Amino acid sequence: MEPNRASPSRTLIESILAGSEAIVALGVTLDEVNEDTVVLRMTMRPDLTRDGTIYHGGPVASLIDIAGDMVVAARAGGGVPTISLRVDYLRPCTGSWLRATARLRRFGRTISVSDVDVHDDRGRLCAVGRGTYSSIVG
Q1: Dihedral angle over CA of 28, 32, 37, 41, nearest 10
Q2: How many Å apart are CA 45 and CA 102, to the nearest integer?
Q3: ∠ at Cα 130 (56, 48), nearest 5°?
Q4: Rounded Cα–Cα distance for residues 137 and 118 (Å)
Q5: How far apart are CA 73 and CA 53, in angstroms?
Q6: d(CA 123, CA 135)
Q7: Which of 111, 115, 116, 127 has the CA that lies 20 to 30 A from 40?
Q8: CB atoms < 10 A from the CB of 4, how many?
């Protein structure tokens, strides 16, 4: 298990996050990185909501995709393309922030899969997703 501070995986993920204008625009930040797990946070802003209180599904899906990608990228050694993404919304996502926990389900030679749980600031599971990614950086 890698420590959360200054690990090569943390440095890589922070670099990828900071290098993407779309990710920066969403305000997605890295909370934790461990072996086969990445935790990201997205802070509530009115432009990410439907009505000022409920996150719009688009930013939630983006958070899931970014988290899933980052857990594969940590193993692959760089950003990887998304092949497919599935998102299930279980309840309205509300609160001051959302936390996405991505777990590497399988890292293959060419294809990898990650599962992502999204919790609100009260710890309620509000969305889940599964992403399929290329295992090849690019």
Answers
A1: -30
A2: 22
A3: 15
A4: 25
A5: 32
A6: 31
A7: 111
A8: 14
Mean pLDDT by 10-residue block, N- to C-terminus, for the chain (138 residues)?
68 97 98 96 96 96 98 97 98 97 98 98 98 96
- Model-wide pTM > 0.90: yes
Contact 71, 36 (CB under 8 A): yes
Phi, psi (deg, nearest 5) at residue 114: -130, 150
C-alpha to C-alpha distance for 22 and 41, rounded to whole angstroms = 15
**Which residue is listed with tokens 């990410």?**
48
Q: What's the sign of the alpha-carbon dihedral 66, 38, 75, 28?
A: positive
The residue with tokens 């294809």 is 111
Rounded Cα distance, 97 and 84, in Å: 25
